[in-house]
Design goal:
The complex is a heterotrimer. By secondary structure, chain A is α+β, with helices and mostly antiparallel strands. Chain A contains nine helices and 19 strands. By secondary structure, chain B is mostly helical. Chain B has two domains: 45 residues, no CATH class; 206 residues, MetI-like fold, CATH 1.10.3720.
């Protein structure tokens, strides 16, 4: 079994706390992505799993073994670096076989396994070349091959696609998914690109300033972000936020945005009970905002044509909202249009803590802590 | 246009004296003393050079210089390589102090070192030995070589070492299999830098040797204490300059790395 | 450096870097710091009794060569260093224009890096002696009818000039390499921005390039001045003892007069001068924080 367990990892560099009490669990065979802006600590977490950094506090378990203090070479991990780190003075074959050589695998077996993994990654023709003679995409493949050939318990990847151009990046995303399906290794993947995270991860851990803010499937994170930050970070364009006041009419809560009245989603009933007449933050994604009907009025400022859709910037109540509409829509900059915020698209957050309000149905997905570790 | 004119003038200024000493070295003694001295020796002759080499002690001095340089390279590399690696790879408290210390040591003149060391060497039995001179040359070159080596190691990405470690190497193995092979050209250049420094060093070598002189020490002694004839001096100058010239040509790609290392 | 199977305990500074630095640090302490202190001690200690004395200093200062040596050392330095820096700057800027063939130019100008002050002295000797190449040229060109003795005591001005010329020829290369390296560190954006805003090449040089080059200039000046104070073989080769210099006197007092104490006194003086001049440079050429 090759699961990864992180227990309250803590790391500081000088006075800066890079990783703050991070706890996480990656199941055997699962593909987990650490997502966050630069400086959020995701790479540091990965390096602690690899053994390239020693945590100041907490523990790392791989396959049931406490590897916290173990040297990188003893942890049976395969790692792909952002810059690929291919040994320039060795041919591709020797690069890929390096880990096998370190493990004392006999030569014949080395050749067999290198061929096997080269086929998987389609680099059979490149084995005799030097890294300097390869393109970026080819180097990336070799780096992955080198990590996979040793059949590690766990695969670690540090932004492996960020040095590729946009087109290659898309192709490789599909490749990595295919590889993961075929090889099935437990993978921990670091990226700042939320599209990558959403498409590759079985589960995504969103990190910010050293902490895991939300850890769930991509769908859940997208649909129900735990904080304002998560809502804004995932999804392109990001989630919109408007201030509102909670009102109660009898047993029905509703939201007052400006002078307009909007129905509050059922799940928040419990949470809203304690917030009569208090401020709350309404989050709604651009694709959920409805144009053409509704109690709010807005002025269209900018129109951006994005192929199958149009992205509009609409000003209402002094806020700028992003709204996506079909490219057929006949709205023009300068138009004044009515807006609706349908109940299904509304997410509520506390304006001070910027945390999502509890939804009575599913509490665990909202917080960042997956519960006490046994 | 002006650029070329300036460049040509400066180049000529640099090359002319060297060309002239080369010419002087292959001019016969008779022509060297003639007035006015002809530029082009007729015929080109090795007479002057042969005369120089035949003088007692010259060949031995050449050998001594080579031996001292070789010793210095070994010792200086052995001392500087670990320190350079530490500066390149580790962030440790006191790093700034080390770098500052190296900088200040560079400014201590060989002049000031040579006299007390001569006195000390007399006591330690190292006076007038090649080992003694090599020890001093090492002390003079270590501050430079450490910084050169540090910059060479810094040029080898640390991720390569980390990749090797993640594939099963210990830190030492990663250094040996990955970093060192890639650093070899730079280290070779550092060794050559040390050679030039040792080969050319005059003051300490002069003060510290009597019977085991290096070439510079031998020449100074001949010129100052024994009033050697002119053609002897010219030949001596030629031999001093020749190997270093060849070497500078060989390492021309590393010139900036080596001497520019003093730039912060 | 081997970790075995385990790394260092947390929260403790790894000990490895200190171990790696130790050999060279210890070596330098023994072979540089200790002699330094010893030199100072030698210059103020009575050889047999070990008591402190100013006798050696007195002998040094009252020696007839002392004041000339001090004057000449300072004079040669004051003449040679600015000339070197100016020439080196010209060379470095030329290299920076990247004109076709500039790598060869760089290599040619760097050749004197391999030349010691002794070799330089011997080379330029062939130029300056009475029957040397310089006189031969001047005769051929018609400026002279009989050889002029540049290197005689009758023409101390020419003697010093010859020494300065030799030193400038040799040491410019060192400054040039430092400046080229420094120039390469300056991003081109600055000069290009200035040009777009209307600055002529000279003004770009004065207002943008030189200020940004200040750290390199400072380093180069310190190195060259300190080394110029130690000039020995060039002077001795070209002038014997006609032009006394501090390093030369150190040599003579040790080898000729067999007095290591006065020799140390001279050596200490050179050390103090170097330290003083370094301090002055560091303070007058203090770099603004942003340019660093």
């Amino acid at each position: 079994m090759a699961e990864i367990r992180l227990e309250r990892l803590h790391k500081r560099f000088g006075r800066v706390v890079a990783v703050r009490e991070v706890s996480l669990e990656v199941r055997d065979g699962e593909f987990v992505v650490l997502l966050g802006p630069s400086g959020c600590g995701k790479t540091t977490v990965l390096r602690m799993v690899a053994g390239l950094e020693v945590p100041d506090g907490g523990r790392v378990w791989i396959g049931g073994r406490d590897v916290t203090r173990l040297a990188p070479g003893r942890r049976d991990v395969g790692m792909v670096f952002q810059s690929y780190a291919l040994f320039p003075h060795m041919r591709v074959f020797d690069n890929v076989a390096f880990g096998l050589r370190m493990r004392g695998v006999p030569r014949a077996e080395q050749v067999r396994r290198v061929r096997e993994v080269s086929e998987l990654l389609q680099i059979e023709d490149l084995l005799d070349r030097y890294p300097a003679q390869l393109s970026g995409g080819q180097r990336q493949r070799v780096a992955v091959a080198r990590a996979l050939v040793i059949r590690p318990q766990v695969l670690l990847m540090d932004e492996p696609l960020s040095n590729l151009d946009a087109l290659l990046r898309m192709q490789f995303r599909a490749e990595l998914k295919r590889l993961h399906r075929e090889v099935g290794s437990t993978t921990l993947y670091v990226t700042h690109d939320q599209v990558e995270a959403m498409s590759l991860g079985d589960r995504v851990a969103v990190m910010r300033e050293g902490e895991v803010v939300q850890f769930d499937t991509p769908a859940n994170i997208y649909e129900h972000p735990a904080t304002r930050f998560v809502g804004a970070f995932l999804g392109n364009p990001p989630m919109n936020f408007l201030p509102a006041v909670v009102r109660w009419e009898g047993h029905e809560p509703w939201l007052q945005v400006g002078e307009a009245r909007f129905a509050a989603p059922r799940e928040y009933c419990q949470a809203l009970r304690e917030r009569r007449d208090e401020e709350v933050l309404v989050g709604i994604r651009p694709e959920h905002v409805v144009l053409g009907t509704g109690p709010l009025e807005g002025e269209v400022l900018v129109e951006e044509v994005l192929g199958p859709q149009k992205l509009l910037t609409v000003r209402t109540l002094g806020h700028l909202l992003k709204v996506t509409v079909s490219s057929q829509a006949s709205v023009r900059p300068g138009d004044r249009v009515p807006l609706d915020l349908p109940e299904a698209g509304i997410r509520l957050m506390d304006p001070r803590t910027e945390q999502a309000l509890d939804r009575s149905r599913n509490r665990a997905a909202v917080s960042g802590n997956p519960g006490p570790l046994v | 246009m002006a650029t070329y004119a300036a460049a040509l003038t400066l180049s000529a200024w640099v090359l002319a004296p060297i060309a002239l000493i080369g010419l002087a070295a292959v001019t016969s003694r008779e022509q060297l003393y003639r007035w006015p001295r002809p530029f082009w020796p007729q015929p080109v002759t090795v007479e002057t050079l042969a005369f120089f080499l035949r003088q007692e002690g010259v060949v031995r001095a050449l050998g001594n210089s080579l031996a001292v340089a070789a010793l210095t390279i070994l010792l200086a590399t052995a001392l500087s390589a670990p320190a350079g690696y530490a500066l390149a790879r580790y962030r440790f408290r006191g790093r700034e102090t080390v770098q500052l210390g190296l900088l200040t040591t560079k400014m201590f003149p060989a002049t000031a070192l040579a006299v007390p060391l001569a006195v000390a060497f007399l006591r330690w039995g190292l006076y007038d030995t090649l080992v003694g001179v090599a020890l001093v040359h090492t002390a003079l070159s270590v501050p430079f070589v450490v910084l050169i080596v540090a910059s060479v190691f810094r040029g080898v990405s640390v991720e390569l070492e980390e990749a090797a470690m993640s594939l099963g190497c210990s830190r030492l193995q990663a250094f040996w299999k990955v970093t060192l092979p890639m650093a070899l050209p730079g280290l070779a250049a550092a060794a050559i830098f040390t050679f030039i420094l040792s080969w050319n060093e005059v003051f300490a070598a002069t003060l510290l040797t009597v019977n085991h002189r290096t070439l510079p020490a031998f020449l100074v002694h001949s010129v100052v204490a024994e009033g050697a004839p002119l053609h002897f001096r010219y030949a001596g100058g030629f031999f001093l300059v020749l190997p270093a010239l060849v070497i500078i040509f060989l390492i021309r790609r590393y010139l900036l790395t080596l001497w520019g290392v003093t730039v912060r | 450096m081997s970790d075995g199977g385990h790394q260092q305990t947390k929260r403790s500074q790894p000990v490895t870097p200190y171990l790696l630095v130790l050999p060279s640090a210890a070596y330098l302490a023994v072979f540089v710091l200790y002699p330094m202190l010893h030199a100072v001690l030698l210059s103020i200690t009575e050889p047999r009794t070990g008591t402190l004395t100013l006798e050696h200093l007195r002998r040094m200062v009252t020696d007839l060569h002392f004041w000339p040596a001090l004057r000449y050392t300072v004079l040669i330095t004051a003449l040679a260093v600015p000339a070197q820096v100016a020439l080196a700057l010209a060379m470095a800027l030329l290299v920076q224009t990247r004109f076709p063939g500039h790598p060869y130019f760089l290599y040619v100008c760097a050749i004197p890096l391999a030349v010691s002050d002794l070799a330089a002295g011997l080379i330029w000797l062939s130029l300056f002696t009475e029957r040397g190449y310089l006189n031969a040229i001047l005769l051929r060109v018609g400026l002279l009818s009989s050889p002029f003795n540049f290197l005689s005591y009758e023409s101390p001005g020419w003697l010093v000039g010859a020494i300065v010329a030799t030193e400038v020829w040799r040491a410019t290369a060192i400054v040039m390499v430092v400046l080229v390296a420094g120039l390469q560190l300056i991003p081109r954006d600055y000069a290009e921005t200035a040009a777009v805003f209307g600055a002529s090449p000279w003004r770009v040089l004065w207002h943008v390039t030189l200020p940004l080059l200040r750290p390199s200039l400072q380093t180069a000046l310190i190195i060259r001045t300190v080394l110029a104070f130690q000039l020995f073989a060039t002077v001795v080769t070209l002038s014997g003892r006609l032009v006394p210099v501090l390093a030369g006197e150190t040599y003579f007092w040790y080898s000729l007069y067999r007095n290591p104490h006065v020799a140390s006194a001279y050596a200490t003086l050179v050390l103090l001068l170097s330290a003083a001049v370094t301090w002055v440079y560091l303070h007058t050429l203090r770099t603004p924080e942003e340019a660093a």
